[in-house]
Amino acid sequence: MWTDDQLRLLITERRNRNADYHNISGSSRVSFWNDIANIINESFSTNYTGYQCKGKFQNLVRDHTLMCQYMAGNRAGRRTRTGVRYFEEFRSRFWERPDTQFDQIHNINASSRQREIRRRNRTSPPSYEEILSMMSRRESITTHTTQRDRSALPDCRISSNRRVSTNRNNENNESENNSNNLGVANHLPV
User: Fold this and answer.
1) Percentages of the chain per state (helix, strand, coil), in multiples of 5
2) How many Å apart are CA 44 and CA 159, to the nearest integer?
3) Nearest to 86 by CA among 56, 63, 52
4) Do residues 160 and 169 make contact, with C-beta atoms less than 8 angstroms apart?
5) Which end of the chain offers a freer environment for a tag, N or C, measured as fewer CB atoms within 10 Å?
6) Separation between Cα atoms, residue 85 and residue 65, nearest integer Å
């Protein structure tokens, strides 16, 4: 069970060594997490592994993310004890890769490009004359349909093929019953 002091040391070590973490070549950071585990173990006489330290830190990041979603009103978010306890420390998002000058230039250019695209794609609102023209067209369409021959409008019901075939079957059955039951009253509904 992690204590508050152990978690704070884990967070501090990860924050202080963030540049080292992101400068490790390859994808394996096992030695990084083993070093942090050794520091915690020496300080508190514990025996955490690098894998446990990595997992605990990932859970802290997850709890922070859930808290952010919760505060934003997102249904996926939720309030957690560790998210509340360490929220301020994680607010700076210190675990993310720091931006280099190249990243900063890229971000500026990308946002400028997106802003330019949005500006070009904007359509100006219609003028007063355009609105009046649209309204008069709608009125003429409405007037034209009310003056049309009502019999041409599709509001009369057309019987389905099922109903027609069922009626034919009933007529066939009725004629068979009448011929089979000579002198017996037919009780089929008409």
Assistant:
1) 70, 0, 30
2) 85
3) 63
4) no
5) N
6) 13
